[in-house]
Every structure is written in C-alpha cells, then in structure tokens.
Amino acid sequence: MSIDIETAAKVAKLARIKVEDDALPALAQEFNDILGFIEQLNEVDVEGVEPMVSVTPMRLKRRQDGVTDGDIQEQVLKNAPDAREGFFAVPKVVE
Q1: How many domains does the chain have?
Q2: Paired sense of beta strands 87-88 and 83-84, if any
Q3: Is 34 inside any structural domain?
Q4: Of 30, 51, 62, 81, whose CB neighbour count within 10 A is largest?
Q5: What is the Cα–Cα distance from 9 to 20, expressed in whole angstroms?
Q6: What does pTM read for this prediction?
Q7: For residue 25, what are the domain limits?
Q8: pLDDT tens figures, 67-77
C-alpha cells in the first residue's frame, strides 16, 4: 500500500493537524515508511510465541472485581453548580 499526497492531506485533516502544502510530500513519505515497517513486522514468524506484558517475567496485580457506588456521592456532588435529588442538574439542551 502506498500513501500519496492527497491521502496524506486527508489524514492530516481528519487528525486536525495543520500541514502546509510544501510539507505534504514529506508527510506522505513518513506514512509510507511506517507502513513499510509494519509490513516487515508482518513477515516475522511468531508461531508459538506467547504474548508478553513485559520483557521481565511478572504477574499482574489482581483485585476482586466488584461493582459499588463508591459511597462518596456527597463528596462528588459537593462542587456541582446544581445538584438535585442526588444527581447533577444540567440545563435542558434538547426540546
């Protein structure tokens, strides 16, 4: 896959990045270099390789996964400009 100048301009626009017209060829080349590197990575044989979290063997810390309300409703609503019946009150924006 090759990225041309028009595609680079479109990606920059979608990313909300201002890129001058004279910098678009360099940006397109950078995109092509990145895609080339990804293609190189796809050529690596990873059959039988376990996914790793880190290069050093370690276990992730685990905790009990329990759903709670946090018991801090008053603290959360303390700085709210307008709170009613235990909830944030906001202006109506849809009619």
Answers
A1: 1
A2: antiparallel
A3: yes
A4: 30
A5: 9
A6: 0.51
A7: 19-44
A8: 887 888 889 99
